[in-house]
Amino acid sequence: MEPSVEQSPHHAYPDHWEADVVLRDGGTARIRPITTDDAERLVSFYEQVSPESKYYRFFAPYPRLSAKDVHRFTHHDYVDRVGLAVTVGGEFIATVRYDRIDAHGRPASAPADEAEVAFLVQDAHQGRGVASTLLEHIAAVARERGIRRFAAEVLPANNKMIKVFRDAGYTQQRSFEDGSVHLTLDLEPTAESLAVQRAREQRAEARSVQRLLAPGSVAVIGAGRNPGGVGRTVLRNLLGAGFTGRTYAVNSAFAADQGTIDGVPAHRSLGEIGETVDLAVVAVPAERVPEAVADCGEHGVQGLVVLSAGYAEWGAEGRERQRELVRQARSYGMRIIGPNAFGIINNSEAVRLNASLAPERPDSGRIGLFTQSGAIGIALLSGLYRRGAGLSTFISAGNRADISGNDFLQYWYEDADTDVALLYLESLGNPRKFTRLARRTAAVKPVVVVKGARHSGSTPPGHAVPISRIPDATVSALMRQAGVIRVDTVTEMVDAGLLLADQPLPAGGRVAILGNSESLGLLTYDACLAEGLRPRPPRDLTTGATPQDFRDALAEALADEGCDAVIVTAIPWVGEDGEAEQGDGEVLATALHTAAAAGPAKPVAVVHVEIGGLAEALAAATSTVAQQRPVPATPGVTAPGRPSGGAPATTPAPATPPGGSATEPAEARAAGRIPAYPAAERAVRALAEAVKYAQWRRQAAIPGKVPEFLDDTIDEAGAAARIEALLGKDPDPRGRPLAHDEARALLACYGIAVRPTLPAPDAEAAVAAAAQLGYPVALKTTAPHLRHRADLGGVRLDLATEPALRRAFGELTDLLGKPAELRPVVQAMAPRGVDTVVRATIDPAAGAVLSFGLAGAPSELLGDTAHRLVPATDRDAAELIRSIRAAPVLFGWRGSAPVDTAALEELLLRVSLLVDDHPEVVSIALEPVVVATQGLTVLGASVRLSPPPARTDIGPRRLSNY
């Protein structure tokens, strides 16, 4: 809302303070600055507040606002006096205001850094988390305006408000003065305040999804009068699934005496229904959707599934129509799945919801499936059905203009009915938030992702989200860091999902292979080696093996302490007449089920070739109830909390979902499902993903940290002062690169020493520089087209004497050009070692990324670079240098001396801290970094500064607006 011309001239209306938020109960609201045009809204709002709440606000009976009050509460300068309002349906439901004060509590201006704050929430909306959300936003506004503390006076009986302040997580002080509680809050975010904020975000967003998936009543808006059509199809699917709630058909074209459609009440509008509807499925043409949304909002609908097409997938006009749809729905407190959605399914027996275009509700199971594509959703449902897999929930979000995969990660994190989350994503609206949520969810259950549109450089039609500049390989590395199982195809996603949902996690990569085909066993063995597993020689049971032989062999393999997983290979039995025998699939499945249920908890997978009925029988299960099982300890390593030789102890997970336990997927089910695969490569690849995920779980149980020894050599304040001076008061939004000496000085604030270079515009200057630095020296060009290109002859090393230096200078200029073009410099030689590259860059969508690789063309050509999100821990740094393919060069490859990887890890941590502490540092490149057997030397450094980009992950909670 823009202010009128009467608005205070001190500061422009801050539209970036406007935000859509999700409240504790899952409903949405809008937060915005109060303007002079809000006088009538303020008076109406105040009239609906109870006398008790008014008393708590003003410490006295205050039945109505005077004209002076209204003027005061609607006129702000947005600097020293700020008011925010929470609106639903355009009307106020809560307000907050701060006034800057001096040390004596009197009105003040900057540099005073304290403000008095006061809240007022309508009684009907108390308990929805409105005040706590407002506190986050007004605190962020205050920090932006240079305010560091809030002061508040609260009556002792106002327990709700005292709790809002107490639970916020800020550093605070309390005292009792003149009959009221005096509270002072330090507004600097703390680890506790951030944890509180994210916990509230999780609960609110999970609840908003839960309201959509478990409605008590559903109305299909656009259900046609005649069979067929999208609306009528959804209505039929709702009824066919046995939805446990109430169902209504709504169509303005119905006759007044229509009565029913397909046996459910038919109405021309929601107002005719006579009760509040929880969920509306909208299946009308796009031009009629605004009317339907308004009808829903005015009658208290909680959420929408919009199947209608004609939005962002149709270009600029459709994109604006989509934005308006989201704005309209959120203004009424509703969230949206879609538009252009395929629908949602909830297989809980308490709900049995199929509000989708899928003709049949899939079997119940423990897999949650989210897809941004209806076509992919259909294929996945079909594939899972053929494999005998069951789903807990299914969501096809279409253009995902509002609710996205992030919201469902919030929901699945604490959903007791979901053990594995599968996501097909074509775009990541908030990659930084996605990796944070995925890491937390992966700590308690597997998250498997297929990323479409990986190489197109743009988002699919309909997905109006920020475009990340980082390459797909980097995205994949960051997902791996967060514990996400990234696969390339939907087939691989189903393969991995089935194994993870139906089998325990492996303790390691030692694989036993057994079966009745030597050839199939050898193929499986080769596939294991290719995936980095450690297979044992295949055990050939011969073609004459009976189901009992399989049972005995599997039981023996599972009991072997040197085995972490078993792959069973099977081909059809051939009778005496040469024909394959039929009907043995169920017998073999029973034998395998029996052995797996009786043996130790280890994953089992089956590779079969055309054995009739085997896959279906293996997929049968007598239970779909998860049972707890600890994450297996690494073989040969005592798990934390396990006495040597004692009983196994559960390895602690880094997070436990609220109201649940950090259980393994599909743990120890009696006669549980055993996944079957038609090819050895597919089974082995799924098992390899499970092995890597289990290893990540064990490592994530003990989180990394930033070593304390770094603190003594870091001057954060000094670096901040240098950055402020270098950017100036009016920085160029495009940023600026730092000169060599500027970069050296800034890096030195974080204990990063860059070997100095001296310019050598001519031979005499080169000789003088060498005399100053000391021989031996290196002569290098710094022209952009020759920088770090030793292969082009732009570097001369180990120049130990003046004649050698003069000769090298002449050769350089004769070969490559004039000194003015080459920009030669002289640098003292560093100890011999391995040349590496350390980089950190800021991506506007993904955030800060730390990268490492070896220097040189081969690494660049092969893309052999590792990446981690900032801030990096000691574990991240150690993994970073070990995860590149050329890592053996650092550890004594082919008899060479191992280099000082500890010094390299420390350098990575220092770079990580620098870019994390100072978001103005948008790019750092240290190249080359020569790592010797003892210590390292940074020979080159480039740094770029820019005004800090917006951080969407550390500010107050808000919904994305695309």
Provide a descriptive summary of the structure in words.
The protein is an alpha/beta fold and 962 residues long. It has 27 helices and 39 strands. The strands form six sheets. It has an eight-stranded mixed sheet with strand order 1-2-3-4-5-6-8-7, with helices on both faces. The longest helix has 23 residues, at 191-213. The two termini are 18 Å apart.
SSE layout and pairing:
Elements: E1 19-22, E2 28-33, H1 39-47, H2 51-58, H3 67-74, E3 81-88, E4 91-101, E5 114-121, H4 130-144, E6 149-154, H5 159-166, E7 171-177, E8 180-186, H6 191-213, E9 217-221, H7 230-241, E10 246-250, E11 260-261, E12 264-267, E13 279-282, H8 289-298, E14 303-306, H9 316-331, E15 335-337, E16 343-346, E17 353-356, E18 364-371, H10 374-386, E19 391-396, H11 405-414, E20 420-425, H12 431-442, E21 447-451, H13 472-481, E22 485-487, H14 490-502, E23 510-515, H15 518-530, E24 534-535, E25 539-540, H16 547-559, E26 565-570, H17 584-598, E27 604-608, H18 614-619, E28 676-677, H19 680-700, H20 716-727, E29 736-737, H21 740-748, E30 757-759, H22 763-773, E31 777-781, E32 795-799, H23 802-816, H24 819-822, E33 824-828, E34 834-843, E35 847-854, H25 857-862, E36 865-869, H26 874-882, H27 901-917, E37 921-931, E38 936-938, E39 941-945
Parallel strand pairs: 5-6, 9-10, 9-13, 10-12, 13-14, 14-15, 18-19, 18-20, 20-21, 21-22, 23-24, 23-25, 23-26, 26-27, 27-28
Antiparallel strand pairs: 1-2, 2-3, 3-4, 4-5, 6-8, 7-8, 11-12, 16-17, 16-19, 29-39, 30-33, 31-32, 31-33, 34-35, 34-37, 35-36, 37-38, 37-39
